Description:
Fumarate Reductase Cytochrome B subunit; single chain
Amino acid sequence: xxxxxxxxxxYITVTILVxxxxxxxxxxxxxWSARSTEIFEKRQLKWGSLLFHWGILAAFVGHVVGxxxxxxxxxGLGISNEMYHRGAILLGGMAGLAALIGLVILxxxxxxxxxxxxxxxxxxWLTTVVLLVVIGLGDWITLGHNLYATPFExxxxxxxxFRGLFVFSPHAYLMTGIPLVFKIHIVASYVFWMIFPFTxxxxxxxxxxxxxxxxxxxxxxxxxYRPQS
Length: 229
């Protein structure tokens, strides 16, 4: 099971992600958008969207900083383990809470507006549930496990294992002793990336480079017709 979850399943996830994106882009370009629902409701969308997007962006940066950067780099910069974990709990906790609160607002919005519910697909609901699990577990790890239990040093276990995936040399034994909540959080993330190509979230990887070479659009006021005397 160790070999399956920490060596085989990650590459299965990446394969589904890449192939799914290629198929989606080639056969469903018209559906490659966020499909704005602002026309149905604006107030909850405003706050929910802001909190979720900024929170998830900050959390992503935190994962990159915590997992991809080796612990030796922090020691070389003079950042102690205690200093790092305090910053991770404070900043990571704020980012995770913002993302979770924003997602809850958006979920309640979908549940309480009949017209919005009718325009919500199965993929939308599935994405919402998976994100609630992933973000909720991440918040518990940051603000629950690390505060009320001994802070787990994932930079010497999860970090090296994850970086090993990029060079096709992951060490499954590094994941043997990590807390169960970390394992569930990671496996739930697998599920998220597996369904990602088939949801509206694909718009986050689209960069509008075409706008850089697009001809400007000129807007001119319409002159009123005035009959000559």
